[in-house]
Amino acid sequence: MPESGRMRSFVCALLIVAIAEITPPASAEKVSPAAAARPDAPLDLSVVDRLLTTTRTVRRRLDLTRPVEPELIEQAIEIAIQAPTGSNRQNWRFMVVADPAKKKAIADVYRKAFEAYAGSRPTGAPSTPGGRISASAWHLSDHMHNVPVLVIACIEGRVENQGLAAQASLYGSILPSAWSLMLALRARGLGSAWTTLHLTGEKEVARILGIPDSVTQAVLLPVAYYEGKNFKPAPRRPGREVTYWDSWGEHR
């Protein structure tokens, strides 16, 4: 073999050894790129579970100074609309608000509703989990107009005067997609907060944004990059305590 051919073979052998050394071994929690490309490939549960258990409502840690790229919002919405939709009507709508004047007008509506709901502003440093949540809620109310993007998840139709089944169907077609949107945003380094208090002034918000009377607003998500990385699962009751089998109150 010519000298150049032997050299190429030697280099190729070194590359194969190097790749083998840096490639982690396959395990139940690691999925190979080839397997991940298959539609029926198993999911990496460690990643999925971390996303599901650490997507939190973010208030104080929203970065109010860093712009959010519109493309990231659009990507997240593409993911969100894979959520269930009653009768495949696909009648969800997402109102994205980045205009400063409109954000301020919506923030004013939200702040008025929040102050009526929250009562007096707490004083002093919070010393309990409840106190910290209250302080962060006040922080968001004070700075809602500074959040880079507001997203209002809406759905075509009104069900205020209809029965339980119609209401469950309508909200069941928009709330899952709003939660999927929060997850997709989190996966892209963006935080959000699930808020609904603006709905006390829904008609005023609809007027600000030109939303038709035939459309229901469901949830408002302030969206921004978040500061810090140590999101953790929230304290929750054990699943067994809230799960019944076959008859109400019966545990397995």
Could you describe the 3D structure shown?
The protein has 252 residues and is of the alpha+beta class. The protein has a domain at 67-227: NADH Oxidase, CATH 3.40.109.10. The protein contains 9 helices and 4 strands. It has helices at 3-22, 33-36, 45-54, 70-80, 100-118, 129-143, 164-172, 175-187, 202-209; strands at residues 92-97, 149-156, 190-192, 215-225. The chain has a 4-stranded antiparallel β-sheet with strand order 1-2-4-3. Helix 4 (70-80) crosses helix 8. The longest helix is centred in the N-terminal third of the chain and has 20 residues, at 3-22. The chain is globular.
Gist of the model:
With 252 residues, the chain is an alpha+beta fold. It has helices at 3-22, 33-36, 45-54, 70-80, 100-118, 129-143, 164-172, 175-187, 202-209; strands at residues 92-97, 149-156, 190-192, 215-225. Helix 5 (100-118) packs antiparallel against helix 6 and helix 5 packs antiparallel against helix 9 (202-209).
How much helical structure, as a percent, in the residues?
A: 40-55%
Annotated CATH topology of the domain at 67-227: NADH Oxidase
The number of helices is 9
Low-confidence runs (pLDDT<50, min 5 residues)?
3-29
CATH superfamily of the domain at 67-227: NADH Oxidase
Q: β content, as a range?
A: 5-15%
Mean pLDDT metric:
86
Number of strands: 4
Order of helices and strands: HHHHEHHEHHEHE
Structural class: alpha+beta
Overall CATH class of the domain at 67-227: Alpha Beta
CATH architecture of the domain at 67-227: 3-Layer(aba) Sandwich
Q: Please state the CA-atom Rg, rounded to the nearest Å.
A: 24 Å
Largest sheet, strands/sense/barrel: 4 strands, antiparallel
What best-fitting shape do the alpha-carbon axes yield?
globular
For the termini, the CA-CA separation is: 71 Å
